[in-house]
């Protein structure tokens, strides 16, 4: 059962949940348990772990029912399972695997962003980092990595030496690596859910 609960019914269920009504909680559980399990299982390929993650989400939902802020139930639950999967993977991956995900992001010059919330967040992280760069470095980075201009073309266009262009690129990439490393959870989410 994948369909969302109708908005009116969802609001009733959420109000019931906040009030501690077990029937409301059970309805939410029955409707969403299996779709959440499928999301976790497809990513982890481990039935037991997937079941544990889903169970944990519902246990926390019940424990925090009076204080948790939920606007859209489906979005809340599916976001919760995705983050639970990521947290589990983070405890399992080695530093080498971390570096692989990390390098893959910055080396792809012609990567296209999926039209998803995570894709938009990924772009927002990049944009945020770019805005803090010096103007010249920002312009050169955009031309090279986002517009696919060669170093030679950028040098001619901006009346700079190729060495100067390479200096700005190195400086920009080094800074953006540090900036994006701080937001690694978003990058990891993006690669696990959209770049299989």
From TrEMBL:
<keyword id="KW-0804">Transcription</keyword>
<dbReference type="InterPro" id="IPR013325">
    <property type="entry name" value="RNA_pol_sigma_r2"/>
</dbReference>
<feature type="domain" description="RNA polymerase sigma factor 70 region 4 type 2">
    <location>
        <begin position="125"/>
        <end position="176"/>
    </location>
</feature>
<comment type="similarity">
    <text>Belongs to the sigma-70 factor family. ECF subfamily.</text>
</comment>
<dbReference type="InterPro" id="IPR013249">
    <property type="entry name" value="RNA_pol_sigma70_r4_t2"/>
</dbReference>
<keyword id="KW-0731">Sigma factor</keyword>
<feature type="domain" description="RNA polymerase sigma-70 region 2">
    <location>
        <begin position="35"/>
        <end position="92"/>
    </location>
</feature>
<dbReference type="InterPro" id="IPR007627">
    <property type="entry name" value="RNA_pol_sigma70_r2"/>
</dbReference>
<dbReference type="InterPro" id="IPR036388">
    <property type="entry name" value="WH-like_DNA-bd_sf"/>
</dbReference>
<dbReference type="InterPro" id="IPR013324">
    <property type="entry name" value="RNA_pol_sigma_r3/r4-like"/>
</dbReference>
<dbReference type="InterPro" id="IPR039425">
    <property type="entry name" value="RNA_pol_sigma-70-like"/>
</dbReference>
<dbReference type="InterPro" id="IPR014327">
    <property type="entry name" value="RNA_pol_sigma70_bacteroid"/>
</dbReference>
<protein>
    <submittedName>
        <fullName>RNA polymerase sigma-70 factor</fullName>
    </submittedName>
</protein>
<dbReference type="InterPro" id="IPR014284">
    <property type="entry name" value="RNA_pol_sigma-70_dom"/>
</dbReference>
<keyword id="KW-0805">Transcription regulation</keyword>
<dbReference type="Pfam" id="PF08281">
    <property type="entry name" value="Sigma70_r4_2"/>
</dbReference>
<dbReference type="Pfam" id="PF04542">
    <property type="entry name" value="Sigma70_r2"/>
</dbReference>
């Amino acid at each position: 059962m994948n369909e969302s609960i109708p908005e009116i019914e969802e609001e009733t269920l959420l109000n019931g949940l906040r009030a501690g009504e077990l029937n409301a909680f059970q309805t939410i559980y029955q409707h969403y348990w299996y779709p959440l399990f499928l999301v976790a299982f497809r990513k982890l390929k481990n039935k037991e772990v997937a079941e544990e993650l889903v169970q944990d989400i519902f246990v926390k939902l019940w424990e925090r029912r009076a204080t948790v802020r939920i606007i859209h139930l489906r979005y809340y639950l599916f976001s919760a399972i995705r983050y639970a999967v990521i947290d589990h993977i983070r405890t399992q991956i080695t530093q080498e695997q971390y570096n692989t995900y990390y390098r893959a992001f910055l080396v792809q010059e012609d990567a296209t962003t999926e039209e998803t919330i995570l894709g938009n967040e990924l772009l927002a992280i990049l944009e945020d980092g770019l805005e803090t760069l010096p103007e010249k470095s920002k312009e050169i980075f955009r031309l090279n990595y986002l517009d696919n201009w060669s170093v030679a073309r950028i040098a001619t266009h901006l009346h700079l030496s190729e060495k100067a262009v390479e200096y700005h690129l190195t400086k920009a990439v080094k800074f953006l690596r540090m900036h994006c490393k701080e937001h690694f959870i978003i990058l990891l989410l993006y690669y696990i859910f959209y770049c299989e």
